[in-house]
Amino acid sequence: MEANNSDGGGSPETPATENMTTISHHYFGESNGSDDAISITVIESMKEDYGLFVWPCSIILAEYVWQQRSRFQGVSVVELGAGTSLPGLVAAKVGADVVLTDDSDRLEVLDNMRRVSELNNIKCEVMGLTWGVWDESIFSLRPQVILGADVLYDSSAFDNLFATVKFLLEKSPGSVFITSYHNRSGHHLIEFLMVKWGLKCVKLLDGFSFLPSWKASGLSGNIQLVEIVLSDVAKN
Ligand SMILES: C[S@@+](CC[C@H](N)C(=O)[O-])C[C@H]1O[C@@H](n2cnc3c(N)ncnc32)[C@H](O)[C@@H]1O
Questions:
Q1: How far, in Å, is the centroid of ligand 1 from the Cα of 235?
Q2: CATH class in words for 55-230
Q3: Burial of 139 by CB count in 10 Å (0-12 exposed, 13-18 middle, 19+ buried)?
Q4: Pick from 1-5, 28-32, 42-46, 208-212: least confident
Q5: Which regions form coiled coils (predicted)?
Q6: What is the best residue among 26, 79, 141, 150 to mutate for testing ligand 1's pocket, by most ligand atoms within 8 Å of CB?
Q7: Digit-coded pLDDT (tens) for 139-179
Q8: pLDDT of residue 184
Q9: What digits encode the pLDDT tens for the residues 33-73?
Q10: If you take atom 11 of ligand 1, which residue's CA is the nearest one?
C-alpha cells in the first residue's frame, strides 16, 4: 500500500479541520458534458486509518469497473476491504446490486460507507466482513463479482483474505474476484497464492494501461489488476 497525496482521480476540497475530514470528487467518462459520465463524492479522513483514504488501487479498480460497466448491470457485487468504496460505488451507480464490506471491528469505516452511499444517493448494503471469519452474514452472500482494491498489502492477512475469496467463489458458480494491488515482487506472490488456494488468473493488466492520462498523471507505482476464478472453472 502506497499513499499518494495527489489523488489522481479526485479533486480534493479543503479539509474541515475539526473532524479532519475532506471531500473528494471522482469523475468517470467524458468530461465534455456527455450523458455517459458519472461522478462519485467520497468522504476521506486525515486521520491515520487505511479505510478512510482513497488509495491509488481503488482509483484504478473503479476506472476498470466504469470501463466494463455493461458487465456490471444487474450483477451482484461484494467489495472486500472496501474502505472509502470507490469501485463498489461505481458498480452500484452503473446498475449492480452492491454489498460494501470492511473489517467488522472498524465501525468508523463502516459508518463512513453508509454516509458516502447516502451522499451519492446510492443504495448499497453495508456489512462488517472480516477476512477469514465466518459470521452468519457471510453465508447470505452470493456475489457474481467480488472486488478488492489494495487488499493485498499485509502478508499476514493474505491467507485469511484468500480463504474468504475462495469461499465466496465456491458459493457462486461462475463468479470472479477482481483485485488491484501494488506489484512489488513480479506476479510471483499472486501466483503462489492462487496455486495454494486452487484459483487461477484469467486476466492480468498493468493498472495504468487503461487509465486516462489525466488520472494516471496523479498516481505512481506499479499497480496490477487481476481477474481470478476457481481453477477448475478456468480449465473448462
Ligand atoms: C489499503 S486499505 C484499501 C481501502 C480501499 N479498498 C481503497 O483501495 O481505497 C485496506 C482495507 O482493507 C481493510 N481490511 C484490512 N484488514 C482486513 C480484514 N482482516 N478484514 C476485512 N477488511 C480488512 C481495511 O479496513 C481497509 O479498508
A1: 31
A2: alpha beta
A3: exposed
A4: 1-5
A5: none
A6: 150
A7: 999 999 999 999 999 989 999 999 999 999 999 999 999 99
A8: 78
A9: 667 899 999 999 877 567 788 999 999 999 999 999 999 99
A10: 81
Q: How many CB atoms within 10 Å of residue 233?
A: 16
What is the per-residue pLDDT for 173? 93
Q: With cut-offs at 50, 70 and 90, classify the pLDDT of residue 95.
A: very high
Please tell me the distance between residue 51's alpha carbon and the centre of ligand 1 in angstroms. 6
Ligand 1 mutation target, pool 44, 85, 151, 161, most atoms within 8 A of CB: 151
Residue 9 has pLDDT above 70, yes or no: no
Residues having CB within 6 Å of any atom of ligand 1: 1, 50-51, 54-55, 57-58, 81-84, 102-103, 106, 109, 130-131, 149-151, 153, 157, 160
Alpha carbon of 8 to those of 29, 144, 215: distances in Å?
Answer: 15, 29, 5
